[in-house]
Amino acid sequence: MRLVIADDHALFRDGLRSLLEAHGFDVVAEAGNGREAVAAARAHQPDVVLMDISMPVMTGLDATRIISADLPDVRVVMLTASDSDSDLFEAIRSGAAGYLSKDLEAQQFVSLLDGVTRGEPAISPEVARKMLGELARPTASSIAEESYGLTERERDVLELLVSGVTSNRDLADRLFVSENTIKFHLRNILDKLHLSSRAQVIAFAMQHRLVDGTG
After folding, report:
1. What residue spans in the chain does CATH classification 3.40.50.2300 cover?
2. Which of 18, 55, 74, 213 is a good FRET partner for 11, with 20 to 30 A between their CA atoms?
3. CATH number corresponding to 140-207
4. pLDDT in tens for each of the 215 residues of the chain?
5. DSSP summary character for residue 60
6. What torsion do the CA atoms of 53, 54, 55, 58 make, to the nearest 10 degrees?
7. What angle do CA 72, 54, 20 make, to 5 degrees?
8. C-alpha distances in Å from residue 69, one per residue of 63, 76, 102, 159
């Protein structure tokens, strides 16, 4: 996997580069702000850009919007050191394929990142739980009455995604089906919700209370 690291702290970039290269990733460029991140993505066409949210000159969110629009094959995974996840849904809406905390353990970080190339959202169970907590606040309507045409099995897949089970293998094991069957259900979910990534599906399901257990 070819990556660009975008963060305004040089020491963090150095540490992250060492970790990634030790696990066989190819770091093709670094950027200290959002504008440099966009330029690096255009120049190198990496598989993934690891994007800090808060950067000078141009924010990570703004850079993500540009990269997602101009370079749809380049996936962006947001990085944050803050406990506040107020930017989470905006990051996903901007086209991010994941949202990871900088305090993740190295092996968990690498595992989630490795799944991005397989179309799996890089969202840790801890971040998923924070999302659930934010969305568990009382509202006028809890679970959406509209089902968006999802079948019962597609809703089962959706519930597992929201709970933090995101890999095809884990989903297949939980539902006692093949990975190809999971891929089929996921494609149907994306088509029915008019979304382009699993990360967007998770954010959409939580915002619209599409599954039980979100409130």
Report:
1. 2-123
2. 74
3. 1.10.10.10
4. 999 999 999 999 999 999 999 999 999 999 999 999 999 999 999 999 999 998 999 999 999 989 988 898 899 999 887 655 567 777 777 788 888 888 888 988 998 888 887 777 787 766 666 665 555 554 434 444 456 888 889 989 998 888 888 888 999 999 999 999 999 999 999 888 888 888 888 878 877 777 764 44
5. H
6. 70
7. 65
8. 10, 11, 26, 29
* Residue owning tokens 């991005």: 116
Tokens representing 165?
């089970």
User: Strand, coil or helix: what is 96?
Assistant: coil
Q: Where are the alpha helices (DSSP H) in the chain?
A: 10-22, 34-44, 60-70, 88-93, 106-116, 125-135, 152-162, 168-175, 179-193, 198-207
CATH 3.90.1300.10 fits 2-123, yes or no: no
pTM: 0.67
d(CA 43, CA 210) in angstroms, rounded, equals: 40
Backbone φ and ψ for 2, nearest 5 degrees, come out as -100, 130
Give the integer Cα–Cα distance in Å for 104 and 30.
Answer: 21
Q: Where in the chain is the domain with CATH 1.10.10.10?
A: 140-207
Helix (H) or strand (E) holding 97: none
Distance CA 75, CA 41 (A): 10
Which of these, 174, 191, 26, 202, lies nearest to 98 by C-alpha position? 202
Identify any residues that bridge with 48 across adjacent strands, giving them in sequence order: 3, 75
